[in-house]
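Tokens as discussed.
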């Protein structure tokens, strides 16, 4: 197995969160972050958001800047969750317009990933879920989820796409909440270039065994990414 080690670009910095949006620490400028990361033994690349602000948005300039520090973009993920338009789920919203807007962003992210030679694209269905019983039509939502992921995956079957599951947060209940549901989703999508993510913190939240979920995804040849997070078992 070829293992690549990467870190999120925002690992270093102010540590912003919902209660202290300004961050707990002083921010670190882009070049200082890259300088620190370049000195981490065994680090292959960084994980960035698309669009990649504050990094260069031009693919060639981004690659050149990272190469100056001996780094590359290992993985990239689209911002389809931070705007209120995605509040009912970028992948499963009953609005065709919302889903099409998400598909457009994801395809742009795939094109960008190819331009910078990223290893894979991460997709996180952040708001795809519900807070209250019967708030949504569960069957329709799952159908939209499958169809949206399938259209994105079919855009370029040479690009690996990893789907991340999480039991809750921001929604109280997420559609892709456990490794079992992730495998069911991947099976329904039916594309070889789509796989799964095991985030250790999310597996803890779902009361799962880390070893078991890794083995299950690997059994189906769908283990594309492992995110090493530390958090309490029932805390986002």
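Sequence:
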């Amino acid at each position: 197995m070829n293992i690549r080690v990467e870190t999120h670009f925002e690992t270093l910095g102010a540590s912003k969160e919902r209660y202290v949006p300004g961050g707990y620490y002083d921010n670190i400028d882009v070049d200082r972050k890259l300088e620190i990361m370049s000195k981490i033994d065994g680090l292959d690349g960084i994980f960035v958001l698309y669009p990649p602000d504050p990094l260069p948005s031009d693919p060639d300039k981004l690659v050149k800047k990272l190469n100056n520090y001996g780094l590359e973009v290992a993985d990239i993920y689209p911002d389809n969750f931070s705007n209120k338009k995605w509040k009912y789920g970028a992948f499963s919203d009953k609005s065709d317009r919302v889903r099409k807007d998400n598909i457009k962003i994801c395809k742009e992210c795939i094109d960008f990933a190819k331009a910078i030679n990223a290893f894979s694209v991460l997709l996180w269905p952040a708001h795809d879920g519900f807070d209250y019983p019967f708030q949504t039509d569960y069957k329709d939502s799952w159908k939209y989820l499958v169809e949206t992921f399938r259209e994105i995956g079919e855009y370029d079957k040479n690009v690996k796409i990893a789907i991340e599951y999480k039991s809750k947060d921001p929604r109280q209940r997420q559609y892709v909440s456990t490794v079992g549901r992730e495998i069911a989703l991947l099976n329904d999508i039916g594309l070889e270039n789509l796989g799964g993510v095991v985030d250790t913190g999310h597996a803890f939240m779902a009361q799962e065994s880390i070893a078991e979920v890794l083995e299950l995804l690997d059994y189906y040849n769908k283990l594309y990414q492992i995110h090493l997070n530390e958090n309490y078992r029932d805390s986002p």
